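Hey, I was hoping to borrow your eyes for a little while. A protein chain has come my way and I'm curious about its shape. Take your time with it, there's no hurry, and the full record follows here:
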Amino acid sequence: MNRRKWIYSAGSAALAFTGMATGSREAQAQEHRPSLFFREDWAESPAALPVTQEHVTHQDLQLELYGPGREGIKKSNHDQPYDDPFYIWSGEAEGNWAVALRHRGQMVDLSRQGKIVWRSKQQGLRQLRMVLRLADGNWLVSEEADGPSLDWRIREFVLSDTRWYGLDINTVVERALAKSPDLRRVDAVGFTDLMRGGRTTACSRLDWIEVYGHGVPR
């Protein structure tokens, strides 16, 4: 083999190796960083009290309502302003409440850079928090929360940065701090503000929610 051909062959091999290494790194990054597991936007239909399964747009998600105030959770919308979203509203809840969404076919691993993103607006002293049901049936509620805002805003939660408390799902009241909960098999994801509704001046609103994690077969 002459020198020119040898250099060309060596260069091609080096490029191929580099490409394989780059592809391997990208594959590892994709495997490590979770993609969108589900997003729920709620049906674009007239306001209804309480919210029901027919208001869930994702065909694989099952709606679950908990707590003494669950019948007061409304799927709301207004004609004005013109861009008012279709959202969940807690203003008429007569006690603590929680909303959860369960994927019918899969659990989700939220332990590896799992995230929850939502668009919400709270008023009064309301702090909207994440809730999770683990594979063993235990419930958690997040210490981190999304507080009051004069307008809709998007909030991202990195779950590895979050501390969790146990949750009594019947009363929707927090329990003791959960030490190193296992988020590898999460059965349902939702939200609560751990308070009853106070109409327009004291309420939580959630426009949409996204969950990023690795799907796990049931």
The chain has one helix and 15 strands. The CA atoms of residues 104 and 182 lie 21 Å apart. Confidence is low (pLDDT under 50) at residues 2-30.
